[in-house]
UniProtKB/TrEMBL annotation:
Keyword Electron transport recorded: no
Species whose genome carries this gene: Anisodus acutangulus
Biological classification of the source: Eukaryota, Viridiplantae, Streptophyta, Embryophyta, Tracheophyta
Record-level Gene Ontology MF annotations: pyridoxal phosphate binding; serine C-palmitoyltransferase activity
One Gene Ontology cellular component: serine palmitoyltransferase complex
Cofactor needs: pyridoxal 5'-phosphate
Family: Belongs to the class-II pyridoxal-phosphate-dependent aminotransferase family.
GO biological process: ceramide biosynthetic process; sphingosine biosynthetic process
Gene3D superfamilies named in the record: Aspartate Aminotransferase, domain 1, Type I PLP-dependent aspartate aminotransferase-like (Major domain)
Protein name in UniProt: Aminotransferase class I/classII large domain-containing protein
Amino acid sequence: MITIPYLTALTTYFSYGLLFSFGQFRDFFRKIFDWWHASNLQGYAPICLGLEDFYIRRLYLRIQDCFGRPICSPPDAWFDVVERVSNDNNKTLKRTTKVSRCLNLGSYNYLGFAASDEYCTPRVIESLKKFSASTCSARVDGGTTSLHTDLEECVANFVGKPAAIVTGMGYVTNSAILPVLIGKGGLIISDSLNHNSIVNGARGSGATIRVFQHNTPSHLEKVLREHIAEGRPRTHRPWKKIIVIVEGIYSMEGELCQLPEIVAICKKYKAYVYLDEAHSIGAVGKTGRGVCELLGVDTADVDIMMGTFTKSFGSCGGYIAGSKELIEYLKYTCPAHLYATSISPPAAQQIISAIQVILGEDGSSRGAQKLACIRENSNFFRSELQKMGFEVLGDNDSPVMPIMLYNPAKIPAFSRECLKQNVAIVTVAFPATPLLLARARICISAAHSREDLNKALEVISRVGDMVGIKYFPAEPQKQQLEENRVKLE
């Protein structure tokens, strides 16, 4: 867990308190002035109400130029960012004709497949000509092509499961499938920092939900033991089903799941394991097969494997892999399969081609080189940031690197200054993170060269000094160490 320095926490609370006070002060006077003007909505309840509306108006809109920046090129190592202007203090933003060529440190393009690829792109174009851009139908109607069945076989073989089902959207894969897997009388035990799609899916299931401390197997065992002993609320009957949900790499922390320990605990208490590999599949492991391969866990011990194609594979959609009985059941019951339009054929072909490259089935070693490159780039960038004095979350081999910002004023300052120097950074704040834990999330790609990373490090270091987010003392450079040795001699 993150330990916030006392002074940093104090100044962050003070900053939010100041923003809140001035916002409430302005709202008070706005109500007085609005009282004199007749409203056409007298008698109606406000459609936007409460602190959420206040937060959007008084905090988010002031810095919304840092979010949702439009791009006009493929999200490769470098991309084109459209410049925007505002004449009303950021309430509205207008696009201009100006474009900035920026180093991309925000996209999930882990293996570099998001841009044109010598193997994937020609095959995607062929599939577009053959199958069109969309099936315009759900899978159970007229939306299943030969590419969809090939994709499901390909994914199942890649992740090491007997069967798989694919959906057209990664978010929906969690939110629509969890209510099908478990319902009233079941128990979901979820990591406290699981993705919002898991949270919404769990809430929609009707099952009882309990949370364990982030990535802490000992607390998971405690929660499991207590709830198995107590049984269901009021009746104390045994639970119909227990599912433990974790992520392979946590998207806001960059941490690897402690999967071997969690699997061992779930085996002990006969609970199912649901593993979300949205950020880990294709990005980690010797052959890109995710955290199971990286941490030495047998995929047979993970009951439900979920992942998305929006990161490492440069496409869209998601999948669930498991036993043949499970997948057959989902095909008859899952709304994402029965009612939603199927994944587009070109997107399906992109995924198949990307997996073939990763496995070396294209006749080259580019897949192995990409996997080695993403690992080297991630570890190099993380170690350099730490040497500079930044507080960086996450584990080695993870391509997700959050840099802690904390203070609300540092969120737009860091983002805008980096953009001025042609480095595109994603900043994340409340409600996506807890109020005190604002951060900049960097995503490294195999498409980044060492020169790209060095440029990014120079800019981030310079802006970090300017904004004041180097919370640890920097390590002395080799030159300084050698000079000190000479002086001593």
